[in-house]
Amino acid sequence: MELQEIIELKAELQQLVTSEQAWHYGIIPKTVTPEAIGFYVDTKQYHPSLISELEMLYAKKIILVETSTEVIRKALGKYYRKGTSKSKNNTQRVNFNSGDFLTDLIVEANSINCSDIHLEPYEDKSRVRLRLDGKLLERYVIDKEEYPALVNKIKIKANLDIAEKRLPQDGRIFFQSSGNQFDIRVSVLPTLHGEKIVLRLLSKDATNIELSELGFTPFQLSSFLEGIKNPHGIVLVSGPTGSGKTTTLYATLKILNKEETNVLTIEDPIEYTLPGINQVQLKESIGLTFASALRTFLRQDPDIIMLGEIRDSETAQMAIRASLTGHLVLSTIHTNSAWGIISRLLDMGIPSFLLASTLNMVVAQRLVRVLCPKCKSEHPFDPSLLPAEYKAPVNVTSHFTAAGCESCYYTGYKGRKAVYEVVTMEPALIEAIRAEKQDVNSILTEKGFDTLADSAYHIFANGETTMEEIYPILKSKSGE
């Protein structure tokens, strides 16, 4: 009888069994050799004839290790999810070069809300990983000989050059299958052992996004809504790649999108679609940059402009000019905190008096995974778990940790939530910008603006997430 709490299963072993076979027989692959396969088996489903039945199915000697029902159920829930595409057999039984594999892979990734598919070649094998809730999960292993043909299939669908294997390439696939329709951004990167491909699934419809459901506290939400009421000025959202900045901006556009307003966006890539908004895809290869598109936008009689990102001083200056001429400009920028946006724009050469007169609001955000409500477990909290430099705003006597159940596929988490730092431009802050003052923490505290760290801590204190999820945010304090 196995005493371990959960079985760790590599992708090579996972592919030996389909989801239906695993659940039907109550088995989890343990070992494999050319002559035999070892399985963990649910002790309640074990019977003497099971070995002969599995030997007939797999044409190999079968070794069974009886394991508790609880351990088997956890592994089944984690590695053989019900309601998704079937798990594939090993590479000897499945033709990974078939169009079906690529289609099934994309459909599976989309059905469990994965954001990216990674196809990676190594010296003796290749693997497929899926990004789910911000974490990469190894899903398939492919024979090295079969990998190049799969790469070519993706390149052909993305209209890329299959003969070019030395330079990076970028393309796009419009995917249609089983009622699914969405765009996929394709990035090909030459590596030591072949070409690594990342497929970004752009399958999001912005009509279902609600600003109130993203993670704002009531005070932050009211401050944010107040900040976007101005008919002109700039609203900037900062955060690392994959922190949900575009989602926040599109939830904002959904509110601002009226019949009487002309809304234009320039993006790379277009991640959401929203009826009534004029969206432009960036194409730097032909000169369609953020700055050049913005110049044209100003001749298109816009009311609201969204720039996918402010990357350089030219784009920043154009955004300032657009806001000065009576337009509301929304954009993103890469900084660690909301007030860090000011420093970044000053470094780009924007005069402080222009920033003071055009900025409506600066926002910073991160994403944290939310605990599964069905299985999270409560424990006493030890304050020593907090970073030494972080001073908690409230004391916590107990906290929740991730457990794992069938509902969350034994990850312990279910979905993600945004953590915000929202700073609207108060008179004292406007004066601080004019004076190029870096330390405004006392003003932010006086006005009741929560830092990123404090917002994350409140979510933890409410029992919605774990210390492991928020620790990096607490460690960086207010993102200085």
Write the layout of secondary structure elements.
Elements: H1 11-14, H2 19-25, E1 27-32, E2 36-42, H3 49-58, E3 61-67, H4 69-79, H5 99-111, E4 116-121, E5 125-132, E6 135-143, H6 147-157, E7 169-177, E8 180-191, E9 194-202, E10 204-205, H7 218-227, E11 233-238, H8 245-256, E12 263-267, E13 272-273, E14 278-281, H9 290-297, E15 304-307, H10 313-324, E16 328-333, H11 340-347, H12 352-358, E17 359-371, E18 377-380, E19 398-401, E20 413-424, H13 427-434, H14 441-447, H15 452-461, H16 467-475
Parallel strand pairs: 2-3, 10-13, 11-16, 11-17, 12-14, 12-15, 15-16
Antiparallel strand pairs: 1-2, 4-5, 4-9, 5-6, 7-8, 8-9, 17-20, 18-19
Helix pairs in contact: 9-10, 12-13, 15-16
Overall form = globular
Which consecutive residue ranges, at least 5 long each, have pLDDT under 50? Answer: 84-95
Number of strands: 20
Average per-residue pLDDT, rounded, comes to 88
Strand content: 25-35%
Helix content estimate? 25-40%
* Computed Rg: 26 Å
Main sheet: strand order: 14-12-15-16-11-17-20
How far the N terminus sits from the C terminus, by CA atoms, comes to 52 Å
Count of DSSP H/I helices: 16
Q: Which structural category fits the helices and strands? A: alpha/beta
Largest sheet: 7 strands, mixed
Considering the chains and any ligands shown, give keywords for the structure.
globular, about 475 residues, about 30% helix, alpha/beta, six-stranded antiparallel sheet, about 30% strand
